[in-house]
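User: Some background: our group keeps a shared notebook of sequences we're curious about, and every so often someone picks one and asks for a predicted structure to add to the entry. Today it's my turn. The entry only has the sequence so far, pasted here. Could you supply the structure so I can complete it?
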Amino acid sequence: SEYTFQQFLQDYNLDASSPLKFVQNKAVWRLDKLVNPQNAQDWFAGAVVEADVVLEDLMSVIQPSHQNKHERVWLRHLVDERPHVQDYSTCVNPLAAEPVIGDECKQVSCVVEYDSATDYFPHKARANHAEDWNVTYHGSYKVVHNKRANEKYLLYQCGTPMPAGFDDFKKFSIPLDKVAVEDSTAYRLLELVGERLAVRYMETQYAQSPCFQYLVREGEIETLEPSWGGDAAKRALQLEAVNAQLTYSASSDPKSIAISATSDPGPLQRAEWIEFVSLFFNKEGEANSLFEGIRDRYICHRKQVAEYKSKPVVAWVYNSSWGGNWVVSNSEFKHYYLRDAGATVLGTAGVDMTFTTAAELHAALANVDILIDETYSLSEYTFQQFLQDYNLDASSPLKFVQNKAVWRLDKLVNPQNAQDWFAGAVVEADVVLEDLMSVIQPSHQNKHERVWLRHLVDERPHVQDHSTCVNPLSAPPPLGDICSALVSVAAGSFSVPPDMTNVSTMQLGPVVQSSQEIGTVTLEGSGTELAVTDQFLAAHVSVLTVDRLRLRLSGPTNHLNVSTLQLSNASLLAVTGGASVALGAGLTVTGTGELQNAGTVTLSQGVVSMETRFNNTGRTEVADSELQLRAPMENGGTIHLGPQGRLACLSAVTVTAAGSVTGTGHLRVLTSGALQVSGGSVGVDVSTATSGAPARQKLRVLDAAGPTLSGWGAVAKTLTLAVGQLQVRMDAVAPMTISRDIIVGGAASLGYTEASPSASSWVKAQSLSVSGPVQISVSLSGSYQAKSGDHIKLIEVTSGGLDASAFTVAVSPSGSLTGNLIVKDSQFLALQFTAPNLAGATTEVPEDGIGTGMIALIVLLSVAGAILITGVLVAVMIHCGASKRAKEPASVSSRPSSTQTLISVKVSGGPL
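Assistant: Of course. Here's the predicted structure to add to the notebook entry:
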């Protein structure tokens, strides 16, 4: 039962005359200030997680000057306080998450030692939806542009130098800590990012939130003198005392900041202005988190009602008493809201409909099921007033009259009848949608407690004042309901109900891209299928097991940041059209299931090992990572390898007619693998295996009509060489015969590695089709004696002929030989050697002149020539003079033929 100070004294064998200081000063506290009707203490539940509030409670007792405004939650003064009993009646919204109750800790810290290399803004905002603002970050400052107001702001971190060169910008040292506000839209934006205490002056008659009203009542916030009809001198002093003035339009005042949220066209565009406001307070982290929640809930609800067949007609209307007419308001954001809430909208987006007679109005509203009235009123507006303003009576045949389906936006007001709609509804777009859905599609939101929409027939406005402020020092909670399609899974097993076929967002782990793994997560089905329609987010899961579940990801943003993906019991993970999945570094995909990609899969880092079947009909981007295919794969889409990308075939990989492998990365076909090109194309480097059989024996180009080739075990058809990428390296083993066609793309290259140019190694084909300049690269090694006129056969065709002008040649090592491409007998393309400065003699490099085990280069030179060696060569012995094998006698006009003739030798890359 309730514990008293007298009971305490008795239990501790004390009395009130005890000299102990805590008795004399009555400094005795308990942890039972908050209890339920059965006297169970909230301390044992809430205090465990909200450590900041425990600290605030203790500080308010131990260091009261620091926390003199804190409302204690659990600590009770035993002498003069009684426990506070809370029961079900104080529940505000059973569908929404509880708010955190910690006080905002305001600490503006400026940089003491400036470092130009430091990024002072670790959290960054970005306008992904909003159309009327943008921001760029530059280490110690931000450049912000309000495109609607055409105002530009330079925001630099306090304690750092103000950058030069921004003459036409308004300049602010941030974070701001003293502001004046005359735009009611900004009230809720400031509250949600925890900046109530930064407000010094505001138009207090429009302060809707209880805590702003409380701070006004306590004198923490003063009334801002109006710009029209107010005390100009007093207003000037007020604005002089603040860092900035938040207003609603452009101004020449260097301290003014225009908040143009209501001008952005869509609900999420307007809501993202919370990130714009956060820029001035360095609260991007808080704003990003708040907006992501608003966006996710909005999209989740929208998706759930998208398939509803019944869509009632809804109109947004007001009576203009000063204009003597009626207007069907069709602002773009209202159209978005009604459409997303499952309604049919009367009229065209962006085009208002104005009526000057009641008869015209009534005719236009004949098919309207639900009417939302926006008529301005200084006092409480009633249904009778509505009928009078619209020239109607209760017997009107209009459906919204007969069904009493008339609603207003004034359910929540302050004591001066200022509507909270004009502040809170701008940013909390998800709650606006929930309000509208509860009226338009009530079966979806049947438990939602409306915030702003009031039923005009049987509801009265709810007046909120300062007395309901819970904690003026802390940010208020967002009001959105949890969306049932927003599934969040922590470590452990989540059984997907058989009737759950669609969810908007599925999140594994508390924070996307968190550095902490959350262990093993199992998504367990019963042979069922589940579609994730917006985003699937896996945050560093050690092992993600998909068991007996066909999981389809169709949303535009998905992240599989897991170590091991286990697809068990014939499970399927499908990336469908329009979806984009980013695979985390070090991912291993195992199991008996299948990964299907009909969208886009991106690998950005590390090695992704695919040990289960991978069916790719979309696009797979391998940037600076390696995709290891250890199970059979059929590629009917595109695999694109970036400059550092690698594709390793360790099993049978088939490129079908619609498939391709492109890019500038590396394709490795290892001994255990095989690349089969069945009508598709391969356009990347084909490199050999590091060990085992030559990789080229595993490269298969198929055609069911052709013969089987010796050593290949497959039938040749078409090998497509893409622009500048594919090199077929030959190892002087035997002619690499491809019996059908070789199609060479523009600026492609054929490569040859010759152990000896005299060996028979060339490409042989039925015909050759060349669509652009083709460079043939020849790499020579080994000991060889060459003379002018010798040639190496490169390409042979059996029909169609060859055109040498379509090719160029590059011989490596550089300077080893020079030559020209020639066509012999109309069917051979060959490299014919020439010797620089030949004077009727040849010079040979005898085999015994090469050091054992060294790299030898073919060298052709004149008697007085120079030798350029680009390899590693330790010793070279050169025999000069007339060769015994020369076909003509040596002849040098200006020098004697002698073994003593001087020859210059230049070595690069090794010792001489």
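Suggested note for the entry: The first strand starts at residue 29 and ends at 30. The CA atoms of residues 86 and 715 lie 81 Å apart.
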